[in-house]
Sequence to fold (514 residues):
Amino acid sequence: MNESAAILPPVVGWILLAAFSALWIGLGIYWGRRNKSFEDHALAGRNIGLALGSATAAATWITSNTTMLAPQFALELGVWGMLAYTTASVGLFLFAPMAVRIRKLMPTGYTSGDFFRLRYGRAAWAIFMVYTLFYSLTWLVSMAMAGGILLNALSGIPYAWGMTVILAVCVIYTMRGGLGAVIGTDFIQSLIIIVGVVIVGFAVLSHVSVDQIHENLQATRPALLNVLFPAAIMAIFNNLLFGLGEVFHNNVWWSRAFAFRDGVGGKAFALGGLIWFPIPIAAGFIALASGALNVPVPAADMVGPLVVADVLGEFGAIAIFIVVFCSLASSLDSLLAATSDLLTEDVYRKLMNPGAPPETLKKMAQYVTLALGLFTWLVCLPRIGTLASVLFFAGPLVGSMIWPIVTGLYWRRASTVGAVGGMLLGAGVGLVCYFAIGWYVATLIATAVSMVWVLACAHFSKARFDWAQLSEAA
Amino acid sequence: MTFSAGFLTVIIYGALIWCALTGLGLATLLIRDLKNGEIW
Fold:
């Protein structure tokens, strides 16, 4: 997009970018001074309280997808599209009791990789690592790419510069401050996002009533109000299972379960789900108002900013810019920290240098964060537009891990054969369906196939796992 | 069968008010944790 088509002057974009970059880096350096060991750096000393815990659970889940894709979902799939998006919060609600269980079984654990290795052995761990690294790196690349594209569309800042700045800022404060800085900035970012969404939402409603929006939709696009919209109903299942698979397996969430103070994890994830739940509707309904407000929408993925800028002018555009910047940063930093910890703990410490002292591990985690940032930057630089869609490809992979994780945490009879077969069969069949039928059934089928295999193996298994083996992660 | 204007009103205003309340709740939680020295 050129500068004239952007909704904010580039100079305003650069000022906002500089101000928030300085704030996040300053806080990262300040909070990073508390970190003396790898445990401080990777898990914030395992002492995060309820306020920061709830905010980080919500903020990490509020990606640029939530603030930008929710309006697109509403524009393409109507009321069901917004409601379908809210089902992603179910992952946070269901992870709440799992976080309590994880903390109880693995009081000194570090990563979700620790769980797979100790519970199911090396083969399951290796498959898990391939799946989770593919997913995490794809998510990281798609977020950084979205950052460059969105900053360009909102303010005309060239793609390469916007992507580079937002990635560099997140790498610097995550390297310096570790998970403590990530969680601290998440709190501020979540409050900014919530306040921004509320102000923008009520401001839009002061220009057009819900009755007018409804009347316009009925006259021009009645399908968006259809209670029996088939594609939208399918999207509910896909979103729900994708969300479950992502939250259940990814170290982004497990690292928080380990980092929260004893007794905080369950409440924090449940509150995080409650905080996140209304955001897709509050951010998404704006797209439904585009017709009633006569706002032309040349690109569906820019409908939110276009409507807000049209109704609220430069003030609205600034608000959207800040909300999008915070949404991107709150997810990028979490992914950088969690993936770096996974590689440091599961690959460097466990495979290469088991006797590494805490200070060395902390330094290694910082180098890995830097390397991840450089890798992401190199992949994003050519701006391959189709790369973000690879994230949908990961749906069957994450869906196939749901049952091995849930049964592995609660059933002594859940077996390695079940976990390995469930992940391979589920992902394999899911990917075949992805290409043969479509993305909207791939995760559902992968989860179902994995479930049948895992449950059948558990039923016939004679093995009974000793839970004490999980605490060996120390 | 279509979603009614009343339903749309309830979910839109409900979501916005819910967001506002959670924002206030988060701020209150932070103050409580600060007072008890339980931030981190």
Q: What stands out?
A: Residues 2 and 8 of chain B are 11 Å apart (CA to CA). Helices of chain B lie at 5-35. DSSP finds one helix and no strands in chain B.
